[in-house]
Amino acid sequence: MSPPERSTVTASTAQSPPSSSTDEPVPPVSYGLSKPVFLVSAGIILVSVVFALLLPGVFNEAISTLNTTVVSSIGWYYVLAVTGFVAFAIVLAVSRMGEIRLGKDGDEPEFSIFSWFAMLFAAGMGIGLVFWGAAEPLTFYSEAGAPPNAASLPDPDRAERALGQTFLHWGLHAWAIYVVVGLAVAYAVHRKGRPVSIRWALEPVLGKRTDSWIGDLIDIIALVGTLFGIATSLGFGVNQIAAGLDHLGVLPNSTTVQVVIIAVVTILATLSAATGVDKGIKILSNLNMGLAALLLITVLILGPTLFLLRDVVSNIGYYLQNFLQLAFQTLPFRGEEGATWINGWTTFYWGWWISWSPFVGVFIARISKGRTVREFILGVLLVPTALTFLWFTIMGGTALYEAVLGGVDFTNAEGGIDANTALFDTFSHLPAGALLSGIAVLLVSIFFITSADSGAFVIDMIAHKGDPNPPRITRIFWACTSGLIAASLIWVGSLSGEASGMTALRSLALLSALPFSVVMIGMCISLWRSLAREVKVIERLELRLRQREFMERYSEEIADQVEAKVEEKVASEMDEQFESRLEDGFGQQFQDQLDQRVHEQVVEHLSTYTGEIQLPPVEDGEAERADEGHVRRRLRNPFTRQS
């Protein structure tokens, strides 16, 4: 199974000053090439590629065996961790932490809602949805690819289960992974003013060790996983473009054509990376959104429209109803067959999304300055998921309609589904199928360009200590490297008669997901600590504000009432003494003492509301009495929790 292709775009970002009340001082940042990160990453990549080129069979067997062993051993861990990320994102969104802004308190979002959603869609949809839009539901429907606990179901039930399983792999779980990484990076960059690098998202946990060899190791894992992911996406994804061109009769599908396609895409991506990406991101994202919407609406109109509209509602209901069962599915009683299927699909997807999360997360963080935490989570978690569900229902639903109700057999000679041609085979049963295939090829090609372009930019930012504007020459280097790796492995694979080099490279990308999943758990802890600390500060400030507003509104009225009551009480208690003192000629002196006593008690009563006692000046005659043990009682403040 080839990996799901994931495309994203990124741009330079200006460092925002930290928020005024909650941030620690920002450490001085010295941008420049991080030699440990660059040299170690380049060394790992070089050794892996040379090994794959010289000994493709041995390399593939060694890496694939290692990957299979790891995935088989920790599949349950991936299932728990990724479902935990979903719960973590939802809790943050509904709590008070969701009110905190990713930036200074007064910052406004950089992009409009439409542009933001368009770029999220470009980041989340990518080549993967085009590649698997019809292929994955058809695979899960076929007898050879169906989940073991669904293979014996009747055709209609198996088709419903096929789309529900697809929704699991591309829905909330995938986007929750991106939420964790993107939100942690966005908070560190926009709220704290830290560099654009993965390591700084772990600063609350690592502390001073963030800018040490531990931070270098985190960035190396992110960089290597991202480059391997981009290279494998270029290598495997080019198969769909070549298959589409062959289907349209433009060019035959051959190794030479595939290498030429990669070369053209790499050149265009390199030019974009060299000239800047801010404007290009917006244009390409909006263009992708327009083309995807055009393709989606056209298929909806030309296909079984009423069936698809009913299917959208039914699929969402099935997904929500079976969410927990699907989310925790490990098929332990299905034995080796169940473990093989889970590891080949669900666990594979969780590892693949995690390996791509540094790439997509940095991009999402870049475009989300000025959004609140709640806006970020709801926008990233729900909107792309809804668009993904709509896409799979229309593309996959159309294919399943033809298979179940139309009697079309999409399986190949081996009884499986050819993922490269499944979408084009589906379009061939619709009016204007050639035009739809042409739009799909164009859409995939644009996603290729944005993927290689933005991938080079993200990698270079990480390699340059989080520099939001890394040097042009190194951006070109990374863009060329990803294309060169993919083209070389495809060419060598054709000479040896197998694509073992690309398969092993994909396995390396998946292996990087294991250590990075631990990094993501650290991100959750760091993010929770930071946001909880901010909420406490906000609550204290709100308490002070309520006290101030209360006193400004009622202080004069309360003071008058308290003073009147105190005067009345004191006067009644000391009336006889006052009259006797008057007869003895001490009236004025006693009147002064009485006024001071009243004033003291008024202040003491008012302290009930203000929380403070301001003692009046004490006359010389009263100082002696204070020294003898006269202590005024401080009353309880109702705004605090003093015991």
UniProtKB/TrEMBL annotation:
Matches recorded under Pfam families: BCCT
Cellular compartment(s): Cell membrane
Biased composition (Low complexity): 7-22
KW Amino-acid biosynthesis (keyword) present: no
GO cellular component term of the entry, any: plasma membrane
Domain of life per record: Bacteria
Sample GO molecular function, one term: transmembrane transporter activity
InterPro entries per the UniProt record, alphabetical: BCCT_transptr (IPR000060)
Entry's transmembrane regions: 37-55, 75-94, 114-135, 167-189, 217-236, 256-277, 289-309, 347-365, 377-401, 432-452, 473-492, 504-528
Membrane topology: Multi-pass membrane protein
Residue ranges, annotated region (Disordered): 1-27, 613-643
Keywords assigned by UniProt, alphabetized: Cell membrane, Membrane, Transmembrane, Transmembrane helix, Transport
Protein family according to the UniProt entry: Belongs to the BCCT transporter (TC 2.A.15) family.
Protein name: BCCT family transporter
Species of the source: Brachybacterium saurashtrense
Classification lineage: Bacteria, Bacillati, Actinomycetota, Actinomycetes, Micrococcales
